[in-house]
Each structure stands twice: as C-alpha cells, then as structure tokens.
Amino acid sequence: MSEFIVHGIPGSPFMRAVLAALEEKGATYRLQALNPGEHRTEAYRRLHPFNRIPAVQHGDFTLYETQAILRYIDAVCDGPALQPKDPRAAARMNQLMGINDWYFFPQVGVPVVFQRVVGPVLIGLKPDEAVIAAAQPNAANCIRVINDILGDQAFLTGETLSLADLQLFPQLDYFGQTPEGRALIGGTALNGWMQRMAARPSLQATLPPEPFRQAV
C-alpha cells in the first residue's frame, strides 16, 4: 500500500487524530509539516479548498476533513477495526465525532484552548479572561455530555477503541492542560479515560511539540 502524506501544522489536534489512527493501524505515513499560516496559501488551497488542517494524500487520492480521513484510514488499512460493527455503538461513535466538530471544538477549543494554549505559544497572545469565562457553561455542558456517554466503559463507545476516542482525545488533552479543563475533568470517569488514552503508543508517538505541552 502506498504511503500516506499528512499535511498539517504540528500541534493541531485534528492532525494528531489522523496520525494516531495511522499509528493504530500500523500504516506507513510521512508528515508534511506546515508553518503557522502556511495553510492559507494558494498552494495548500489546492489540497484543501477551505484552508483547514489536515489534508492527506494517498497515492493519487487527496482527501480533507478529519472525519472523512479517519474513516478512509480505517477502511483501507490493515490492523484493528476502529469502527464498531454494532449499529448502536457505531451511531454513538458518529454522534461523539459530531459533538467534537459542532460543539466541543467551536465552543470550548476555540475560546478556551486557543486563549490558554495555542495563542500564547504561537503569537504570544495574552489570554482574554472574559472570552474564557463566557465559554464556561458550554465547556461544562460538553464535558458532562461526553462523560455521561463514557459512563463505566473503557472507551467512548464500549470496550474497544474507536475513531471517536482518537478524534476527541487530542482536543480534550489540550483542554485538560487548562485550569478550566482540570476543574471540569478532575474526578470524572473522563479523567481515567484520558490517562488510559495518553498511555497508548499511538498517542505517545504523536505528542504535540513541547511548547504546546508546557503552555499552561
């Protein structure tokens, strides 16, 4: 099978989800790292017309949108299945991936993680405490919902790893660095899940750059 080329900015949680899936499947890949802002260039637009991160090339096939990439990797690569066969578990996986893209990332990742972690590292941003405070109700709601879905399971959709775990963990890993994240996640079932996920070789192999791990 031809090598995957993953285009993205090191530290992107969306890119980390893709890389972790490739690691879980034992696939061969190469990271084509972009500098901050390079995803807005015309050259990158040819890979991703919406200038988001990441985009992948697999032979003569180019694909963007993290959910689509993750499902493609699971479909074409050998290794353990990352999508449940049970219809209800599969539906729950899809629901969680939607929660990440529609609620957690825009309502928590953008206002809290960007203000606390990404902005200070990339551009020396001073956190806007008003923006962070305004996001707290949404953050609390997202964590409550995801924690309730996890319940006493080992993983988000049951007893085996799924794409939902790989997509959500990089986002929650950043949020868990922040004071707001530690306060909401500490003492929940999600805290144990995050520890189990962080110990997986696929996540250890795809750690974000050191400055992002020491941001808060």
SSE layout:
Layout: E1 4-8, H1 13-25, E2 29-33, H2 42-45, E3 55-58, E4 61-64, H3 66-76, H4 87-123, H5 129-150, H6 163-175, H7 179-185, H8 189-198, H9 201-204, H10 210-213
Helix pairs in contact: 1-3, 1-6, 4-5, 4-6, 5-7
Distinct helical segment count: 10
Instruction: Provide the succession of SSEs.
Output: EHEHEEHHHHHHHH
Measured on Cα atoms, how large is the radius of gyration?
Answer: 17 Å
Largest sheet, in brief, is: 4 strands, mixed
Low-confidence stretches: none
> Under CATH, the topology of the largest domain is which?
Glutathione S-transferase Yfyf (Class Pi), Chain A, domain 2
Task: Describe it.
- The chain is an alpha+beta fold and 216 residues long.
- The protein folds into two domains: 73 residues, Glutaredoxin, CATH 3.40.30.10; 127 residues, Glutathione S-transferase Yfyf (Class Pi), Chain A, domain 2.
- Helices cover 58% and strands 8% of the residues.
- The protein has a four-stranded mixed sheet with strand order 2-1-3-4, with helices on one face.
- It is globular.
Write out key terms for the chains shown.
single chain, 216 residues, alpha+beta, Glutaredoxin, Glutathione S-transferase Yfyf (Class Pi), Chain A, domain 2, 2 domains, 4-stranded mixed beta sheet, 10 helices, 58% helix, 8% strand, globular
